[in-house]
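DATA SHEET
Item: assembly model
Revision: 1
Owner: S.N.
Input lines:
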Amino acid sequence: MTIPVGKATRPPTSTNPITTAGMTATAGMTGPRPPAGQRPRRSWHLRANAVVLAYVALSILTVVLQGWPALPMPRWLAVHLLLLGAVTNAIVTWTEHFAVALLRARQPSRRAAAGRLAALNLAILGILCGVAHGLATVTLVSATLLAVVVLAHLGSLLRIARHALMGRFAGTVRFYVVAGIALVVGITFGTLLAMSAVSHQWHAPLHAAHVHANVFGWVGLTVLGTLFTLWPTVLRTRMVDHVMLAAQRCLVLTATGLAIVVTGLAMDLRWAAVAGLVVYGAGVGVALHPFVATWRRKAPRDLAAWSMAAGTGWLVIGVAGDLVLLSSAPDLTSYLPRLDALVPLLAVGFVLQVLLGALTYLLPVVRGGGPAAVRAGIRRLAPWWRVRVVALNTGALLIAVSGVLSVPVVVPAVGWALVLAPVLMFLGLVIGALVQPATRPALGGIALGLVMTLVPVAIAVSGQGAPTGPAAVSLPGARGVQVVAVTLVGMDIRPAVITVPTGTRLRLVVTNHDAMRHDLAFPGSPATPLLAPGSSATLELGTLTANRSGWCTVPGHQAAGMSLHIRVGGAGAAAAGTGAGTGTGTGDHAAMPGTAGTTSPGPDVHGAPGPGFTPYDARLAPAPPATLHKVTLHAIERETEVAPGVRQRIWTFGGTAPGPTLRGKVGDLFEVTLVNDGTMAHGIDFHAGQTAPDQAMRSLEPGKSLVYRFRADHSGAWLYHCSTMPMMAHIANGMYGAVIIDPPNLPKVDREYVLVGAQIFLGSRSGGADAGALRRGEWAAATFNGYPDQYVHAPLTAKAGERVRWWVVAAGPGEGTAFHIVGTQFDTVFKEGGYLLRRGNAEQGASQVLDLATAQGGFVEQVFPQPGHYSLVDHDMRRGENGAHGVVTVTR
Amino acid sequence: MLGWWSLVRFIHVVSAMVWVGGQLTISVMVLPVVRRLLSAQDRLPVLTGIGRRFGLFTAVAFLPLQVGTGILLAWHKGVTFSSLADPGYGRTLAAKLVAFALVMVAAGGHGYAMGTTRQALARSLAIATLVGSLAILLLATALPQS
């Protein structure tokens, strides 16, 4: 009854309901609808879709700002901005539109729909904020609201269907209803995951079920259901015969398959999930039949059609790829990271591409203005469309390839650039097409104003981006006032050492970049006031003729390392002294005999490592299945940076201090060939084995080798070290490592790390640790795995809810270890050959510190309760605050 | 503490307030009403009149007061040209000065465009001036007050 005049001459099967309904807005001027319907409908859709496009833009921004491949959290945000934000808004808006258009139904209340959309976006923002900031209540309330909104939307769709004037396309609405139910299931799993409400062994199953319910259910079924009618509409051709029969079969298969997949995944029944995925894939295949038949009738010729075709292709590839990954993975825990690699492909290739393709067609249609205006609108969104389609799909291909193969990092980067460029272009074209000419000057003005804002703001924040400065600054013999910027950050003063020629007039511009208040005071000189975070002060030190030291006067801060030393030398000495700008630790100790009586500043324990720094890999792989372990260790002496700014010679097994970690099971045989590539005698002593020391632990002259055989009779975390005297020097200079022998029936955990506690002694650049300092026990820095604060600079990682096992060995040479992880408790403690504590013990007890005397070892297990940054410390604070400190970044 | 320097700062803040507030009032309150009530021809003399008056206020009162008190305050705080490059206070102040210069250029451009009846350009520059003024306020609030 509302079929517009222009289409009435065609046979009923040739009517494109979506086009006609879209045109009804304009054609309706002559039809039975009230003319007032035009503007509200038009602006309604434009407004609702502006929200969709804003989410797309925010998602792009997140990808660009944070770099998708690297960081898990922004990746979560980008995925959810796109799939939860943009796509869910689009689906809720458009499915109602399609339902009304296809069923020739009365337009339901706009006010109710607007209320649902407002509640939907409130829920989406609540979920994004709640999950990002770990606010469990906000997440739960928002997710509940989201589920309620989706159910209300389904109710509205069903009401539309009930009052439909034409029932032929009711099948499409059934797709939407099943898709909505899938979303409610997906939300439930997602919420359980976000709130860490499930024990860790259910993490992988529920995560996989969440992804499948949402991507293949909510998005996949909606898209498939829509394509049966939208595809011929976009191609501007008739539907093929029996299309709705195919739709019905497709829905039965996909819905059944999806239910099996999601149930199977959630119950950790991998093969059930595989079977379900096969059924789902068969359903997609059924949908392809009319899709291809329509294509044969009229091939796609524009951006909208090609985008939808390519997007559908990526859905097929995604389902097939998922099937391969799921059936080839040994279990869901190892399947999950592969699924995570597939998600960007589905998000970009399938979801984003179909969304943009559909909008390219639908936005001009709802904007109306008659068929000519609609065609013009579509054309306006189409410049360079072939290039854009090719770029986006090439990019998606590169992203897909880099997800499964190890390729240079430039490949995914190029892929993302190729994807984002056409998307940005689409956004720009839409904005350009929708903006009224009258408002263009205003937009131009706002854009210019933003540039005028960003440039000064960039100036203002420049120089603050990297708050850690160089550890030491050396000023050449210049006259006049010398100005040095000094930063207070992280219980540290940067630079810590300033070297100036005698007679220099020095001015310090002191800025506090720390989160707490600090000052800087020099005895007998003006001091800065107590500086609030972010504030600065200028300190005039006048003409310098003698060494000066200043520090932060807040109690405890000087002891924590907040001191600044100004070295005053002769003009010539300073110029020749520490060289190019930054003084080195060697310069500090070798070239400063004159300051022997004053307190040495020591190494810059908390400073940034030099350019050659590579953290010791603390991850521990499971014991290899073999029972004979053949290892060759080379004794290697080399110069390296042992602490920030301090280079000195270390003696190592295998080039690193600690040496490589060996791992096996009780009863395994180890056959270690030791080759002495050094310049002095070295030997080796494995605590993990029992053997007469005479031959096995003998000292080897340079160039010689020996074979050390031992059987691991007993479990434990064992030390190995150089057996040549003085062992104190050989261990202090780096010749130590760990042997891990698993106790029988050691349970599998999510991650294992190994940490060897050791202390660093300063010495000469070529000779290693100073003998006097060793004898007096005057270590300069404590370490886990050989470098102070190394896991502060390169944090270890874990996920919330994961069980992590920490193997710890105290190498010394003189100190033990009191291993603690801030914010967690150890429910399992294994020390020196036995369990002190096991998970689920009758006393419900737990442990706070693994105390190891020098050369002892053991392991502890704990579960990170929620995302955050957990410090691992030696809780003997002399060591903990002087380098035996690291960070575990725990993500969702 | 209330003292003579508070008075100088008071003048600095009040004249900025009046200038930015005046722009906001014209753009957000006056112009929409004028556009609705008056035809394009009748509008022009009204807008030109308002613009002239605002320009006069800018040149005679706002600029001298703002620049004068600004220099005094900087002198009082011990700001030197070299310290403008220092990260933190110095650079924030330098950025504020850059933003002020840009805004003044845009405002001057707006007056010029109005004089030569380039309506679209004038409107763009007026809005850019307003947005830029807000940037100055943002940077002013970011200046550490220690």
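QC remark: Residues 1-39, 68-73, 571-601 of chain A have pLDDT under 50 and may be disordered.
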